[in-house]
Specification:
Chain lengths: 291, 367
């Protein structure tokens, strides 16, 4: 059972890193539906670098770097070129899914390194995730920078008039979002499940995207959702812990996805939307053209 | 920027003619293929040889061109399932899940008729084949309808919902065909039982009869969009949901309908690949490969700008590229997944070229 909880927390940290990255993105008004692709890139490049150099540090750095580049790319498409953000995000996802399949396939198999040490029995990334959530919350809601980010996401033209450089802030946010997604992918491939396989993320990025909608764009609520989904995910892998003998193991794998849909529906109802509408960044997904 | 007395400037496009869109699409594909050469070079193959081999095998080799046609049918149907909701401004990226459920429904019909033990079954193709096709369409439509209904009723994000349904359908297929699932092959190889010879999709010449769906739906959908009231409502809703609502169009109805239609067509794609393509005739162990190929439908649909007829040549080209890509992968000893890599490069290039749908370069004489 202790092992089960520890694994659930590990899964939750991955959802948290990716989700907080997407949340920062969306707070500045940029929607990136392609974080699954960014995560795949971070996971695959991190895995390859670590496997060839034997250094975890280099692997994580490579993942963060490629995440930053993909975040910049999405920023370039959606901020500078003014391409539909959904189209651009789809592009990032399919690019990640397509290229990593090709790049990673020679490295199919286990990483073959000693696992990263735990701290007090928990993954070191868990502590990192806690710090990230608190810092993100503090910066977004208690500092001047956070106010700027939020105002850019609410109403970019008004922000621009009051002297905030919308483009700069948005680029910074998409880049940070990309870095966190790339890092999340690397945590998956270098720590949670260090085996490279074709398209192995199987929807983690899309669940992280859904978590941002659940969170009402608040990092603390997001980490709660991530915790829930970490448990759920782990349970779907080990259903015998709760309900042995019911359904095949494949049916259980459907459960986290089904629950995602149910929760998404619940928060979209009118009752919920009265609160939700107030939290959603007003300019989310809309291209902004400086007049 | 000034070049030879002419000043180059970016101008916002007011309109975009069909031929301009086609030109941009061709340019995007050319740039993507040129960029993709780098991967061939990196793998130690000459890009010219690689492309020549790809096109020769895909379009001029007897065996390869038949594979290309089967793949074309699949991609065209996947594209239509994307295009119909896209015309209403909605994103169906659930063609994969819809086609899985369609395939399962078709195999369900076979199972009900005792097709799992073909020696004892007395299968009448005139009954079983139409029922399989119908079941595939209904299965796909119902899967799509979940996303359409939720979007129309509560504005639930259809991208996340269709993606979640993809993963659910993926595991559902595993459940049905593996480890004692009802559709498991009696030999127990982690794939489904085979479609008995009597009820395999008939061939027209050497081409699966499902090519009728691919060509027929292209015409039917464009007729629907251009000539019918429903088509007009779909397009109006796609342009501006708010304005459409004032014009008396019910968003719930449009959203549900486009996903029903799109899902049904994706279901047919599932029937096509697992029950009508020569050499397959079962839900194979690597069904995820076909499922992920369905995402090509997104690219074809975007390149064709939602026009079902324009999507046909694009689907044919991409079908050929993916078949030829697999071929050179073996022939030139390249790594696995060349066709997927191409999918990624095409998609991202296309995204960059979306810019030119809204802007153009203008050359003015500078005085």
């Amino acid at each position: 059972m202790g092992q089960f909880i520890a694994r659930s927390l590990e899964a939750a940290t991955i959802f948290t890193f990716a989700g907080v990255g997407e949340l920062i993105n969306q707070r500045s008004g940029i929607l990136n539906v392609g974080i699954e692709g960014v995560m795949l890139f971070g996971a695959t490049l991190g895995f390859i670098v670590t496997k060839t150099t034997g250094s975890y540090l280099l692997g994580f750095l490579a993942a963060i770097l490629v995440g930053a580049l993909l975040g910049l790319l999405h920023g370039f498409f959606s901020i500078t070129l003014g391409v539909d953000q959904v189209v651009s995000g789809m592009g990032v996802w399919i690019l990640g899914f397509g290229l990593t399949t090709y790049i990673g396939s020679p490295y199919t198999g286990p990483l073959g390194l000693e696992r990263i040490d735990t701290i007090f029995g928990l993954s070191p990334f868990f502590y990192l995730a806690v710090v990230l959530v608190v810092v993100t919350w503090f910066v977004l809601f208690k500092t001047n920078v956070g106010l700027k980010v939020r105002s850019v996401g609410e109403n970019p033209s008004v922000a621009e008039v009051s002297g905030i450089r919308v483009t700069h802030i948005r680029y910074a946010c998409t880049t940070i979002g990309g870095m966190l997604a790339g890092f999340a992918g690397a945590v998956y491939a270098l720590f949670y499940n260090p085996v490279w396989n074709y398209n192995f993320l199987m929807g983690w990025g899309f669940i992280a995207l859904a978590l941002v909608f659940f969170s009402m764009w608040n990092p603390i609520l997001l980490s709660g959702g991530a915790l829930l989904f970490g448990l759920l995910w782990q349970l779907s892998l080990n259903p015998e812990l709760l309900l042995p003998g019911i359904f095949s193991r494949y049916m259980w794998r459907m459960v986290p996805f089904a629950i995602t849909i149910v929760v998404l529906v619940l928060i979209s109802t009118k009752w919920f939307r009265l609160r939700w509408g107030a939290a959603k960044p007003e300019a989310l997904g809309q291209p902004y053209h400086k007049e | 920027m000034t070049v030879a007395g002419y000043e180059m400037k970016l101008e916002r496009r007011v309109t975009l003619a069909g031929w301009q869109a086609a030109l941009i699409a061709l340019l995007a594909i050319a740039v993507a293929l040129a960029g993709f050469s780098l991967l061939f070079i990196q793998a130690g193959a000459s890009p010219l040889t690689a492309y020549r081999e790809i096109f020769r095998y895909a379009f001029f080799n007897r065996h390869g061109s038949l594979l290309t046609l089967s793949r074309f049918i699949f991609l065209a149907l996947a594209t239509f399932s994307f295009v119909v909701p896209f015309r209403a401004g909605l994103w169906n990226i659930g063609m994969t899940g819809q086609m899985y459920v369609g395939a399962l429904a078709a195999f369900g019909v076979l199972y009900a008729f005792g097709g799992k033990q073909p020696s004892t079954a007395n299968l009448n193709p005139y009954v079983v084949i139409p029922l399989m096709v119908l079941a595939a369409a209904v299965g796909g439509a119902l899967t799509g309808a979940i996303a359409g209904f939720l979007k129309g009723k509560w504005e639930v994000n259809e991208i996340v919902v269709t993606m979640m349904l993809n993963f659910m359908a993926f595991w559902l297929v595993s459940h049905m065909i593996k480890e004692g699932g009802p559709f498991m092959n009696p030999g127990g190889r982690g794939e489904s039982f085979e479609v008995p010879a009597a009820v395999r999709g008939p061939l027209l010449g050497n081409v699966p009869f499902t090519i009728i769906f691919a060509l027929g739906f292209a015409l039917l959908l464009e007729w629907l969009f251009a000539k019918t009231k429903l088509g007009y409502q779909i397009r109006a809703y796609g342009h501006s949901p708010k304005a459409a609502r004032y014009a008396g169009i019910q968003p719930e109805r449009i959203s549900l309908l486009v996903f029903l239609i799109g899902g049904a067509i994706a279901g047919l794609a599932g029937y096509h690949y697992f029950a009508a393509v020569p050499g397959v005739y079962k839900i194979s162990r690597d069904y995820a490969y076909f499922g992920d190929l369905a995402f090509y439908g997104i690219i074809c649909g975007l390149i064709a700008r939602g026009n079902a007829i324009a999507a046909l040549p694009v689907a044919l080209l991409f079908g050929g590229l993916s078949i030829g890509g697999r071929f050179v992968q073996g022939k030139l000893h390249l790594g696995f997944g060349i066709d997927y890599a191409l999918l990624g490069v095409l998609m991202i290039t296309l995204v960059a070229f979306q810019f030119f749908y809204r802007y153009r370069f203008a050359w003015n004489r500078s005085d």
